[in-house]
Design a protein that fits this description.
single chain, 736 residues, alpha/beta, Pectate Lyase C-like, five-stranded parallel β-sheet, 59% helix, Sugar_transporter_CS, glycoprotein, membrane, synapse
Length: 736
């Protein structure tokens, strides 16, 4: 047998060498035709030699002892046959040409070497594009039906649950990313001396990054694969999350958080599409809803880590005044752990078999489905059960590829590959707005936009309103002193929440002192000494300083408003913005606790939506949850206390999560596999744009009126729930 194999390999090699020699000496015009003829000659010789030698290599499952792909019955019934799926020895490389793009006699994928999408030169072989598209759609429909049957045979078991936890980590990383900047902002704004515009930009930059990432990685996942795209985007997120914890400047920190958002932006569209392609239709809605719980876990993880790390101010070090590493940077570093864990776990998982079959890779898809079947059967105690599927329908490929040759420079090859990939992505995006999907896409755009606008706008508006209520309560306790005269007194304790008007301070000492929310107006400081003074929201207005000395303080110029300084000296001022962790107004524990409760409140909604998704349908779940969320918005008018606003935040989050779960499921099921992540990524990018608009608009009304944000949110939710009823129901349908 070994000699026979070596002779056969030598014969094939000789045929290919002859073909290469003919190509090299042919003219450019004739060369294309000779190229086709020589490759066809190689294939015919290859096939004849194989047919003569069939009996030496019997294969399990073949009635006549021949290779599976040579079985005439299989060749007539299906074009996706493959020998490697039926007892093929891994050391036997007889089908190596299949992976190099050489078509099989029964493949139906073209007559030229170069595989799917090769350019056909013979004018008689040109086909009408419309007919090719129709044939491709027919293949996709046949594949969808067969694929559903195969998934039912594979069952739901250990493999799906393993993938559930692996992809859950990726979804958890997305949830963490949303909360990171919000938790570190109170500390980072002082560490980096951030102005109000810079704080706003830092809060929104992650959404801009996720918007770009969702669009980019969603489109790429339909071309290069779900697993590969997810690995790349998670790697980008983890790398720049790591860097952002060490960089010192505002600009570099902003840049790192932007690229971190670009990376994690692809997780949601890829994760849901990836997981759905391993689920049979009767359990798809339920298990995709269970997967959504990991986003909640990401918020809980971020809140718990912030609670445990940021207030521990001793977890820091500094190298002079140039480099500081405070506890909030440790928190940023810890928040990258779910992403790193997802990357490590994802390396052990296979690509989506549906992606392989959609791209004509029968053997790879078959092997993964067999792995799913065998894993589940062994876990259920039936290791003897054999995967009965022998052939699977593959979709005809019509992409046009360009042969760039071996002499082309590497940079030119990559440029052509990128251009080709960009054109394919552009075609996919345009296809989402084709007559067949145009109505669905526009309806989903409206639903995604309205839900995101109201949800993200309100979830950011709630904490801001709580802070505003706290501020009002704090200001109501402000003490005011007028016309006081203080002489020869040493202040070495904390001064807080006071207003001093028309005072006179003579020969007083302010030593090792903290001033918080202090205001001095129309006062005189004569021969006073300030040393080691740290201030927070402290200002001197229309004051006069005579023969006073300031040593090692953070009383910078902007704290003196219309003041006169006569014979006064500043020595060794503190550098940068000093951190003040004892600020009760921005109580860290309250911030983390509120977000923890708001995230935990979605647990009941997640459970209800998972249990009912496949029973009442996606549309009823989506529209019903949106209507109830709309009604709950009007209760916000009665939230006049801190505890009341927290309760309403939990209520709104618990109700609205069901509509998000239904929207994720229906988006996955409304598009075919070759456009699924492209469409999902585009819609998720629109979602992040709506989030930026909602946050910006709602924040502008904090402290002014509650009516406008409530009306905006309720109106958007009402419109979204109405439009949701116009979408087609996908419950009980096979995955396209």
């Amino acid at each position: 047998m070994e000699d026979n194999y070596q002779n056969r390999t030598a014969f094939i090699k000789g045929a290919k060498d002859i073909a290469k020699e003919v190509k090299r000496h042919a003219s450019k015009k004739v060369g294309r035709t000779v190229d086709r003829m020589s490759d066809e000659y190689s294939m015919r010789s290859y096939s004849r030699f194989e047919e003569d030698d069939d009996d030496d290599y019997p294969v399990q499952g073949s009635q006549d002892g021949g290779y599976y792909r040579g079985d005439s019955q299989a060749a007539n019934e299906d074009e996706g046959g493959s020998d490697s799926t039926e007892g093929h020895d891994e050391d036997d490389e007889i089908y190596e040409g299949e992976y190099q793009g050489i078509p099989r006699a029964d493949s139906g994928k073209g007559s030229l070497a170069g595989g799917p999408g090769s350019v056909k030169v013979d004018s008689q072989q040109f086909r009408d594009i419309g007919a090719s598209e129709a044939e491709r759609r027919k293949d996709q429909e046949e594949l969808a039906q067969q694929y559903e049957t195969i998934l039912q045979e594979c069952g739901h078991g250990k493999f799906q649950w393993t993938l559930y936890f692996v992809l859950g980590l990726a979804l958890m990383a997305d949830g963490v990313e949303i909360f990171v900047v919000g938790f570190v902002l109170p500390s980072a704004e002082k560490d980096m001396c951030l102005s109000e515009p810079n704080k706003s930009m830092l809060g929104l930059i992650v959404y801009f990054g996720m918007m770009v990432g969702a669009f980019l990685w969603g489109a790429l996942a339909d071309r290069i694969g779900r697993r590969q795209s997810l690995l790349i985007c998670l790697s980008i997120n983890s790398v720049f999350s790591f860097f952002s914890s060490f960089v010192q400047g505002y600009s570099t920190f902003l840049f790192c958080r932007l690229l971190s958002g670009v990376g994690i932006g692809g997780s949601i569209p890829i994760v849901f599409s990836y997981y759905s392609e391993f689920l049979a239709q009767e359990k798809r809605g339920e298990h995709l809803s269970w997967l959504c719980m990991f986003w909640m876990m990401g918020g809980i993880y971020a809140s718990a880590m912030a609670w445990a790390i940021i207030p521990h101010y001793g977890w820091s070090f500094q190298m002079g005044s140039a480099y500081q590493f405070h506890s909030w940077r440790v928190f940023v570093l810890v928040c990258a752990f779910p992403c790193v864990a997802a990357i490590a776990a994802l390396n052990s998982m296979p690509e989506s078999p549906r992606f392989y079959l959609e791209n004509g890779k029968h053997d790879e898809g078959w092997m993964i489905l067999k792995q799913v079947h065998d894993t589940n059967m062994r876990a259920k105690g039936y290791p003897e059960r054999v995967f009965s599927v022998t052939t699977i329908k593959t979709v005809k490929q019509i992409d046009e590829l360009v042969d760039i040759g071996t002499d082309t420079p590497i940079w030119h090859r990559y440029r052509l590959k990128i251009m080709s990939l960009s054109q394919q992505i552009r075609k996919n995006i345009i296809a989402c707005f084709s007559p067949e999907y145009k109505r669905t896409t526009f309806m989903l755009m409206a639903v995604w936009f309205t839900m995101s606008f109201s949800y993200y706008g309100l979830t950011v508006w709630f904490p801001d309103m709580i802070k505003y209520i706290q501020k009002q309560e704090y200001e109501s306790r402000t003490k005011t002193f007028t016309n006081e005269r203080v002489e020869h007194v040493t202040f070495n304790f904390t001064l807080e929440n006071q207003v001093h008007r028309q005072g006179h301070y003579f020969n007083d000492k302010f030593l090792n002192l903290k001033m918080k929310y202090m205001v001095f107006e129309d006062s005189v400081f004569e021969e006073c000494y300030f040393e080691d003074v740290t201030t927070t929201h402290t200002f001197f207005r229309n004051c006069t300083f005579i023969a006073s000395l300031f040593y090692n303080t953070d009383l910078f110029k902007y704290r003196f408003v219309n003041c006169k300084l006569v014979n006064s000296t500043f020595l060794h001022n503190k550098e940068g913005c000093m951190l003040d962790f004892s600020d009760d107004f921005n109580n860290a524990y309250m911030i983390y606790f509120v977000n923890f409760l708001g995230t935990l409140a979605v647990l009941p909604g997640n459970i209800v939506s998972a249990l009912l998704m496949d029973k009442i349908g996606r549309l009823r779940m989506l529209a019903g949850s949106s209507v109830i969320s709309c009604i709950s918005c009007f209760f916000l008018m009665f939230g006049n206390s801190e505890s009341g606003m927290i309760a309403l935040l939990c209520l709104f989050g618990g109700i609205s999560i069901a509509s998000w779960n239904a929207l994720d499921v229906i988006t996955v099921e409304l598009y075919p596999s070759d456009k699924r992540t492209t469409a999902f990524g585009f819609l998720n990018a629109l979602c992040k744009l709506a989030a930026v608009l909602g946050i910006s608009i709602f924040q502008s009304f904090v402290g002014i009126t509650k009516a406008v944000p409530i009306i905006f949110a309720a109106g958007a939710l009402a419109a979204g729930s109405f439009l949701a009823t116009k979408l087609p129901e996908t419950r009980g349908q096979v995955l396209q």
